[in-house]
Amino acid sequence: MPTPKRTLLLACIFLITIAAHAMPAERYYYQVRVYHLATVAQQQRVEQFLQSAYLPAMHRAGIKKIGVFKTMDADTAKRIYVFIPYRNWKQIEQTTLSLEKDKQYNIDGKDYLEAAYNDLPYQRIETILLHAFEGMPEPSAPNLAGPKKDRVYELRNYEGPTEKYFANKMQMFNKGEMDIFNRLGFNAVFYGEAIAGSNMPNLMYMTSFDNKVSRDEHWKNFGSDPAWKQLSALPEYQNNVSKIFIYFLYPAEYSEF
């Protein structure tokens, strides 16, 4: 028979295990850096920096995966989107300090980091800070089989009329909309609530597909899905989005998402 001490120990382990499963997962923070570019030369320069200096330095700082996405050829405004997931707020601070102290980063990225005022590697950098949704507290690398050049990563930005309407749209995602995306195989990379940026209140999310045909088919299925029709018709979820911006991207060969 187990001793009283052993019984107590087993009971404690059981309670700790139950408590761990009951606690909600820690929600990631996401930084989306948008490089606005004017020329092909700028694009090549930024990509060289990201691939040879920035991503390796971020890995050394503890960031396991980073996504790098480019605008489709049909988009005349050339941009590069860098998606950086952080486990928590402290990791953001630690990563910034790590880059400052990383000598190899400053060597590998010298052409970019020490660019002259009249020889710019980009026009502007836009930074957006997001907090992951409760329904998907961390990012997910999509399960895609097609060549990277054919893949479509759809980044959507939903603006809310007011903070109250925006909170209502967040609730709609967490209480049904994300479940529909998951069931229909949209391969979501992330869902995030903007906590700093230029279009608040707003949320952003990214879905991914093997190609444009697959993307169009998925959205067709979504629009006709009975669960979506029922959810979107509920009176409490009306008028909670004022603007929608859609960006079609594809991953760089060295992208990790």
Structural class: alpha+beta
Distance between the termini: 52 Å
The CATH architecture comes to 2-Layer Sandwich
What value does the average pLDDT take? 92
- List low-confidence stretches: 6-22
**What order do the strands of the largest sheet run in, or round the barrel if closed?**
1-3-2-8-5-7-6-4
**CATH topology, what is it called?**
Alpha-Beta Plaits
Helix-strand sequence: HEHEEHHHEEHEEHHE
Number of DSSP E strands: 8
Compute the number of helices.
8
CATH class: Alpha Beta
Q: What is the helix content?
A: 40-55%
Which key terms come to mind for this protein?
single chain, 257 residues, alpha+beta, Alpha-Beta Plaits, 8 helices, 8 strands, 40% helix, 24% strand, globular
Report on this model:
The chain has helices spanning 4-22, 40-60, 89-101, 103-108, 110-113, 163-183, 212-224, 226-232; strands spanning 29-36, 67-71, 79-86, 124-132, 152-159, 190-196, 202-209, 243-251. With 257 residues, the protein is of the alpha+beta class. The protein has one domain: Alpha-Beta Plaits (2-Layer Sandwich), CATH 3.30.70.100. An 8-stranded antiparallel barrel has the order 1-3-2-8-5-7-6-4. Strand 6 and strand 7 form a beta hairpin.
